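Milestone M4 deliverable, item 7.
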Amino acid sequence: MDCVFCSNKKTRVTDKRPSPEGIRRRRECLKCRKRFTTYERIDKTGMFVIKKDNSREIFSRDKLEKGINRAFEKRPISKEKINKMISEIEEQLRRKGKKEVKSNIIGELVSKKIKRLDNVAYIRFASVYKNFQDIKDFKDELKELN
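Output delivered:
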């Protein structure tokens, strides 16, 4: 593994442990002595998402993570809680054992998890997921929250 600071090719692992994302490795560069962390994730390809227009695309944790992170932007929720939630969502989808999952199932699962953590992030996510068109849609969703 190349050092992220000096690009030296020789590093050593000082600590290794499982994490929700996969395997966490703490590394130290043998040249500059700086430390950094890497994550090794098991690639679980093979699951497809069926979109609203019936097109299919390979499930992407990165895409899921990007959408959820956007909802939590500038909110007082720790990155660890958000990452844990993303891992739980991915695991729940994989436990279903299906090769194809409809996008609305993913959207509902994500909505429920976000709602438990932060109402503002939930409204942000819901406005995109449910395709809000005007202020009435926001008001209706806020009524449901109360």
